[in-house]
C-alpha cells in the first residue's frame, strides 16, 4: 500500500465538507500540476492520504481514503488532467501543524517540507506512522 497527502484550502474545501460527503465521497478535482497528476494516477483504491489544510491552518487534520482511481477530471477542458474520488476516513485527535512537522528531524525529508507547493504528494510508511502518532491516531 502507498500513502499520500492531499492539500486543500479550508475556505475552498474543508475537512468538515469532506466528512459531510459521507461514504460516497467527492471527486478530488482541479489538480493542474503534472507531478501531482502523476501522483493521482499512481493512487489505488483503498489507499490512504493525509488531508492537509494548506495556506489557512497549515495542518494535517485527518485521513482520507481513495475510493475511485484516476479518471478524466471533468473540470479540465484540455483533457490532460485526472481526478480521484476520496472519502473522509478518520479525523486526527490533534491536528499536526507544518511547524510541528518541520520541528521533527525524522520528517526533514518529507515531501511536505521539501516540495511545499505540490498539492498531491507521496508519504513514506515511516513518515505515515510518525505523523499518525503525532496526530493521536
Explained architecture:
- InterPro entries: 5hmC_binding (IPR052181), EVE_domain (IPR002740), PUA-like_sf (IPR015947), THYN1-like_EVE (IPR047197).
- This is EVE domain-containing protein.
- It comes from Bradyrhizobium denitrificans.
- The relative contact order is 0.24.
- The chain is globular.
- The protein has five helices and six strands, in the order βαβαβββααβα.
- The longest helix has 11 residues.
- It is of the alpha+beta class.
- A six-stranded mixed β-sheet has the order 2-5-4-3-1-6.
The secondary structure category is: alpha+beta
Contiguous runs where pLDDT drops below 50 for at least 5 residues:
none
Number of strands: 6
Walk across the major sheet and give the strand order.
2-5-4-3-1-6
Mean pLDDT: 96
Computed over alpha carbons, the radius of gyration is: 14 Å
Protein name: EVE domain-containing protein
Organism: Bradyrhizobium denitrificans
Domain EVE: 2-134
InterPro entries: 5hmC_binding (IPR052181), EVE_domain (IPR002740), PUA-like_sf (IPR015947), THYN1-like_EVE (IPR047197)
Annotation keywords:
137 residues; alpha+beta; six-stranded mixed sheet; 5hmC_binding
In short:
With 137 residues, the chain is α+β, with helices and mostly antiparallel strands. Helix content is 26%, strand content 36%.
Amino acid at each position: 500500500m502507498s500513502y499520500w497527502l492531499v492539500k486543500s484550502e479550508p475556505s475552498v474545501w474543508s475537512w468538515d465538507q469532506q466528512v459531510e460527503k459521507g461514504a460516497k465521497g467527492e471527486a478530488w478535482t482541479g489538480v493542474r500540476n503534472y507531478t501531482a497528476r502523476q501522483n493521482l494516477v499512481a493512487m489505488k483504491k483503498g489507499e490512504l492520504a493525509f488531508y492537509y489544510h494548506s495556506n489557512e491552518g497549515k495542518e494535517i487534520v485527518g485521513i482520507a481514503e481513495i475510493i475511485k482511481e484516476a479518471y478524466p477530471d471533468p473540470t479540465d477542458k484540455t483533457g490532460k488532467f485526472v481526478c480521484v474520488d476520496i472519502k473522509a476516513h478518520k479525523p486526527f485527535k490533534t491536528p499536526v501543524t507544518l511547524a510541528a512537522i518541520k520541528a521533527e528531524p525524522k520528517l526533514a525529508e518529507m515531501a511536505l517540507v521539501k516540495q511545499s507547493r505540490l498539492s498531491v504528494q507521496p508519504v513514506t510508511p515511516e513518515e505515515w506512522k510518525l505523523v499518525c502518532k503525532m496526530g493521536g491516531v
